[in-house]
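Bumping with the actual sequence this time:
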Amino acid sequence: MSIADWLEQSVGGSAPLLIYLAFGLIIFIETGILIAFFLPGDSILFAAGLIAGSRDDMNIWILITSIFLGAFIGDQMGYVLGRKYGRSYLERHSSPRIDRMIARAEEFYAKYGWSAVILARFYPWIRTFMPPIAGIGKMNYYKFLAANALGALIWGCGITLLGYYAVLIPGLKESSRGIAIFFVVLTIVIAVRNYRRARKDRRTPPTTTPM
């Protein structure tokens, strides 16, 4: 059995409730847990919309509510942990690649401030590190709360709805299941590749320049 066949049977045949919970949990993990920064959230969201659009027994509003909550709670957790534990929370998973991502996220936050929390949603990897960096930077809690909710709404719900309404394009509904499987397979491939690269970077000792 191929991966595509397995995904079609497992995802396509799952109960709607399990699909709602699964996608909400995946988005929560991708946004709230540092070591899951390699998950390609954009592809996951688009695939979720395609799956919902290709099935008659799924409610898109329940799906995007689950995704919104996953994205919102994930960022809130990252912010609270960053505010409570400070920079030691980021350094706990230090590696050359993660250090570069942290540096990029810090530059992004310094440049855009409050709006960085919203904009970072559309930048893979940076969105995972932005909440703890905002917490470390002592961003006002209510400002972060508002930016987090707006970002989760635009990013999480927006991309999912794009996938959902893409099914309405003439001629696409019949092939939407295959397209959804393609995005899920692509998500898995990218996630595995990024995870292996992150592990490789973590094992690589830092280079020192001779004096």
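The tokens above came from a reply further down the thread. Residues 166 and 172 are 7 Å apart (CA to CA).
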